[in-house]
Design brief:
mainly alpha; 3 helices
Length: about 100
């Protein structure tokens, strides 16, 4: 469980840092993917041995999962908005260049 706690801290830090920055920097998608894959493997290992699980620690891990999912959704939605604005800008430039 300690490994899962540490991994969750890394994920939260990666996602929270980018959420708080006014410049809306990009999340390192490769690092995010690696951390999420490591988390999945750890969860599978923990679930394979339920006798080792401490109920309060497991409940805390479930709550962290919800928080991480919310942060990931926030980044997904923000990225979708940025893509939409970029595409709109590109279409506007194409129309502008037609009539130049």
């Amino acid at each position: 469980m300690q490994q899962l706690d540490q991994l969750d801290e890394k994920l939260a830090a990666l996602l929270a840092t980018n959420t708080e920055l006014a410049t809306e920097t990009e999340v390192d998608s490769e690092q995010l993917q690696q951390l999420l894959q490591q988390r999945e493997v750890l969860l599978q290992e923990l679930m394979a041995h339920p006798e080792r699980l401490n109920k309060p620690q497991w409940q805390a891990a479930v709550e962290r999962t919800s928080l991480l999912l919310e942060l990931i959704r926030h980044h997904r939605d923000r990225s979708a908005g940025q893509l939409k604005r970029l595409q709109h800008g590109q279409r506007s430039m194409q129309i502008y260049n037609k009539f130049r």
